[in-house]
Structures are given as C-alpha cells and as structure tokens.
C-alpha cells in the first residue's frame, strides 16, 4: 500500500497562506483534502488565490484579511473560520517579514515592526487558537511555527540582525509553548533555509551564488519542499513529534 499522509478531518489555518512558503502549505493541505483558511495581510489577490485552490482541489478554501499582530481581529477571524469551514484542527504560522538594514541604523520602530510580525505574530496566532481549543476541550491540535535557520546561525555578510533575533525568539517560543500546551496540541518549529519566494527575490546574483555555495545541495529550495515537511508535521503520522525544530535547508546548518 502506498504511504499516504492523513490529516485530521478539520479545517487548517495558514497565516501568510496566500504567497510563498505559506501558499505552498495552503496548497498541500487542500491537495490532501482538508479545508484551508488562508490568512493574509494586504495582498489584494488573496481571495482569488483561495478560490483557485478551491476550484483545483474541490475543498473549501477561503481567504481572511488580518494582521497577525492584531489579537482582537484574529479572534473574530478564527470564529468566522469555525462558522464557515468547521472546527480548526491546526495552524501553520508562516506570516513573516524580512528587513535588511545596517544594524547601526536600526530604530525602535524597526524592532517593533519586525518582532510584532515574526515573534508576537506566531504567538498571537497560536494563543488565540489555543484559547478556542481549551474552551472546546480539544486535545489533538497541531501547530507549526515557520521560523528560519536565521534563528540558529548568523549569515555572513548580511544586515538582518533584527530578523535573525526575531526568528531565534520565535523558535524558542515555539518549543516553550509546546511544553506548556502539550495536553492540547503538538507544536513544532520548521526552519527553512533559503527558499525561492518574494522574500529572497531581491538578492543579487552574487548573493545568490554565495548562499548556494553554502548548501550541500548547491541551490535554493522551493516552497513545495518546505510544504512537504509542514504537511507531515500536521498529519496524524506525526503523532510522536512535539517540541522540536525541524530544518529544511538543503544542508546549510548541518546539525
Ligand atoms: N524565503 C525564505 O528564504 C525563508 C527562509 C527562512 C524562513 N522564511 C520564513 O518563512 C515565512 C514565509 O516566507 P516567504 O518567503 O514565503 O515570504 P513572502 O513570500 O514574503 O510572504 C510573506 C507572507 O506573510 C504575510 N504577512 C506578512 N506580514 C503579515 C502580517 N503582519 N499579518 C498577516 N500576514 C502577514 C504576507 O501577506 P501579504 O501577501 O498580504 O503581504 C505573505 O503572505 C516567513 O516567516 C519567513 O520569515 C523564509
């Protein structure tokens, strides 16, 4: 019999699910037959992206506009998801921003903007859902926090110190929440390496070559390659996986 991943018959929320890595994860979930709530911040085409997935795979996929830093709006959105798509079985917190700026010029506003999205955002997305699960006495949740290998190691020649710090914090947060909420959910962290998305599209040819030479596979990864691991972590087959960070980086970190 072929090996197949099964998802709980619930709906799944993907923050940043309309573009890049998050989109590939939304697509993988829809392809696996589960309903998907695609959360986005401002891309006007997100509802059309969701409709296209719905048409392609014949499962309900809806887009919801929300800033992941906004708790009140997130709560409204989760309640709407439950009404429209049914109870939520899992979350992938993929929304994130990268800001490149010399550290000597960084401001408090830069700090707040980056940490609000990359660190508070995953916490907020997870905590709003956890409150729902506790209220409904649901004990089989799945949460994947998309962090980065940038939270583990410093990339030479870059100016992304707040990004890297925000990801290091998000990774530790994910593992801490896994411990505190283990009765309700299996929470894991996913650390992509360099992936071909809008986030990395402004890198120069030289920067790309330098990055590629640091990976055993000598190339960028694709969003689908990260989505495969996310789908596994959401699935029933990952029943003994909790509180760990998983790297998908073509062999940069080597640990
Ligand atoms: N690409 C890489 O090489 C790489 C490597 C390691 C880790 N990661 C991490 O993987 C995640 C996805 O990265 P990506 O490359 O796919 O990025 P991307 O293509 O730039 O997409 C970012 C996504 O996040 C959403 N978003 C940003 N801020 C938000 C907010 N405040 N509230 C709600 N949604 C928000 C965007 O929504 P809109 O479209 O509406 O703006 C978009 O869907 C990020 O957390 C990133 O740090 C990426």
Q: What's the number of structural domains?
A: 1
Report the major sheet: 7 strands, parallel
Order of helices and strands: EHEHEHEHEHEHHE
- Mean of all residue-level pLDDT scores: 97
Which architecture does the CATH hierarchy give at level 2? 3-Layer(aba) Sandwich
Question: Which strand order does the major sheet show?
Answer: 3-2-1-4-5-6-7
Q: Report the CATH topology name.
A: Rossmann fold
Based on Cα principal axes, name the global outline. globular
Tell me the β content.
Answer: 15-25%
CATH class: Alpha Beta
Unreliable stretches (pLDDT < 50, length at least 5) are: none
Number of helices: 7
Helicity range: 40-55%
**Which structural category do the helix and sheet elements fall into?**
alpha/beta
Mind telling me the C-alpha Rg?
17 Å
CATH superfamily: NAD(P)-binding Rossmann-like Domain
Number of E strands: 7
Bound ligands, named by name, code or SMILES: NADP nicotinamide-adenine-dinucleotide phosphate
Distance between the termini: 33 Å
Family: Belongs to the short-chain dehydrogenases/reductases (SDR) family.
Pfam family, one: adh_short_C2
InterPro entries: KR_dom, NAD(P)-bd_dom_sf, SDR_fam
GO molecular function, one term: oxidoreductase activity, acting on the CH-OH group of donors, NAD or NADP as acceptor
